[in-house]
Amino acid sequence: MRILQKSHGYTAFEQAFKKAHQSKREVLFSMVTPIEAMDPLQFYEAGYQLYQGERSFWQDRNGDFALVGIGNAQTFTSNQQDNRFKAIKNQWTRFLESAVYVGDHKLGTGPLVMGGYSFDPRQEAELEWTNFSNGYFHLPSFMLTNDQEGNSFLTMNIVCSKDDQSKKIWDRMQSKKDELVTSIDLEMKDVKVTLTTEIEPIKWKNTLTSVVDRLKKGEMEKVVLARKIKVDFDGKKRSDTVLERLRDDQKDSFIFSLEVLDSCFIGATPERLVKKSNESILSTCLAGSIGRGETITNDQQLGKILLNDKKNLHEHDLVVKMISQNLTVLCEEVHVPAEPILMKTRDIQHLYTPVKGIAEKGMSINDFVESLHPTPALGGTPTKLAMNVIREEERMNRGFYAAPVGWMDAQGNGEFAVAIRSGLLHDQHAYLYAGCGIVSDSNAEKEYQETLIKFRPMLRAVGGTMQ
Ligand SMILES: C=C(O[C@@H]1C=C(C(=O)O)C=C[C@H]1O)C(=O)O
Ligand SMILES: [Mg+2]
Predict the structure, then answer these.
(1) Active-site residue flag, 14
(2) In sequence order, what E strands does 318-365 have?
(3) Where does the Chorismate-utilising enzyme C-terminal domain start and stop, copy by copy (predicted)?
(4) Mean local confidence (pLDDT), 251-264
(5) Is residue 263 part of a domain?
(6) Is the domain of 170 the same as that of 202?
(7) pLDDT in tens, 296-351
(8) What total of structural domains would you count in the chain?
(9) Which-ligand-closest: CA of 228?
């Protein structure tokens, strides 16, 4: 047993049940308990037997804040095209109205949902994405929180309905909790890669060239075009093994996974969309790329080239403009550095402008996500035109790739990343995605090479190989 503090949870739990009986509606019971420090991946793996298909993982860029959600106490989904952000927000706030909380609710503990939105609700669904809605969040039955100070907390969420028997449910949840926090060494059998296929790379380059022509004519300023690689395995690839690799290899990235039924969306992205902690807002402009050098000098040279490259600065600048403008509407103050700096990850370096703001009263993280997605880092400029071009020219469904993935709590705080360097595990396959910001002086072959670098983290993590 890892529970440090004996809680008085059961009395409060009975109250929640009474409330559900009396009000004849569902009541959320949410209890937070401090526990002994626990490795988030171990907790994730422990949830495999009991809750396969209902797990989610989040670790922030600093690597010191992690959330692991196990089990669906409740799901919040929307398939609306125009109103999905509000639909999710409304479901979530209405659901919280009757909640009963126990324990000290620190930021990142207690009732919070993990999930995200699809890139484009108007894109036609491809087979591999059918489990996912345009908005999908789960309130975990059990959630591990590791905070910046090295503390671990366990949140237990139970939805009480008027017909349930409280004692039975309580006992069942206690024994599941014990199972999850008890360390067991699970031997994971890994599967083998049988084939790695690039999907129509030549067609992609040709499309890119024709889009560059349209950009040259001034139809629009920037469009992000993405493509897909399919990796086949001789069995079902477990997200646990992929997360493990990503966590070891991609130190400066948000590591995430989101299981929906037998699919799992997973990745390691360096790009924050937005973080809200009370009134403080952080966002990231990330666009413009170059590879890493083999030596320190060479790496610095490449960095210098990127910082002075007109095409990449243009790609980047469009993102800064849009994010600053949109944040100004929701913030009392916005601070934008005048020049980008470099962000380096294992395989690539980017132009990076971190943006800070002070949120207006009453704004929630979800409002920020709605306003910012899609930024020109993943969509283009102007947004609507670029989205049309992506829909017509990409000939695939991005699903949750390049879309907002993260978490939000009951107070409207939370954090979302832009889910790039990511892929979908489905059946015996992994579908990996990578894209590039195309501007009028883009070159098809160069952009293709850029995608090859961007595929590397996920290819390495799933064990795929390219000729
Ligand atoms: C689209 C991706 O990345 C985006 C595109 C970039 C670029 O074209 O320079 C850089 C960072 C990201 O905003 C991706 O990794 O798939
Ligand atoms: Mg680029």
Answers:
(1) no
(2) 331-335, 341-344, 348-359
(3) 203-454
(4) 96
(5) yes
(6) no
(7) 999 999 999 999 999 999 999 999 999 999 999 999 999 999 999 999 999 999 99
(8) 2
(9) 1
